[in-house]
Specification:
single chain, mainly alpha, Tetracycline Repressor, domain 2, 9 helices, 65% helix, disordered C terminus, transcription
Length: 200
């Protein structure tokens, strides 16, 4: 965190603490102690803990979204889907954004929940786009609903984090995403380009 201004340092620290402990269990004092930023400077930048939390949530969302935009990268759609599903993640820390839905104070505050909801909406759109491309490329069957499948795959990742944390073992997370990939491969057309009418 060297070279950061005090505002950036506060946001980064709040972001980490919310990921580790949640919003309710993070106090302004915790943020000051970890960041080394004084009280006067903190309240100069953020009038309330909630203001700081909103900035930290925006930061966590900004960290999450570039990964989803990898869907727009090179390679065929299924290769991009596989790369996204299997990229390294710290399963035992959970999702920076998904973690916030488990915090009652975040869930009950529309201002705090909004960046979380927006992040998932944007990731969902990225999933739908790449799944539609996979259908168009004949890599997935044309009778699949990309909207529904996008929610399924997002749920597999979020649920995988929960299972891994419960067991304190990344294995269930890795199994869940590998299993999702198995199911996607099983959903490929039985012949290229989805022409199932010609049986061998």
């Amino acid at each position: 965190m060297a070279g950061m201004g005090s505002r950036e340092l506060l946001v980064e620290t709040m972001s980490e603490l919310m990921w580790e402990r949640g919003y309710a269990d993070t106090s302004p004092r915790d943020v000051r102690e970890r960041s080394g930023v004084g009280q006067g400077s903190m309240y100069h930048h953020f009038a309330t803990k909630r203001d700081l939390a909103v900035a930290a949530l925006e930061r966590n969302v900004a960290d999450l979204l570039p990964a989803a935009f990898e869907f727009d990268g090179p390679g065929d759609p299924m290769a991009r889907i596989e790369a996204y599903l299997m990229r390294p993640r710290d399963a035992l820390k959970g999702c920076k954004v998904g973690r916030m839905t488990q915090d009652r104070q975040v869930r009950e505050d529309p201002v705090l929940l909004a960046p979380v909801a927006r992040a998932f909406a944007q990731v969902h759109l990225s999933w739908v786009k790449v799944l539609r491309e996979a259908v168009a490329a004949g890599e997935l069957r044309s009778d699949l609903d990309p909207e529904r499948l996008a929610h399924t795959l997002m749920a597999v990742l979020q649920g995988g984090y929960v299972l891994a944390i419960a067991r304190q073992d990344p294995g269930p997370f890795d199994d869940a995403r590998a299993g999702a990939l198995d199911l996607l491969r099983a959903a490929a057309p039985s012949t290229p380009n989805g022409k199932n009418d010609k049986r061998e």
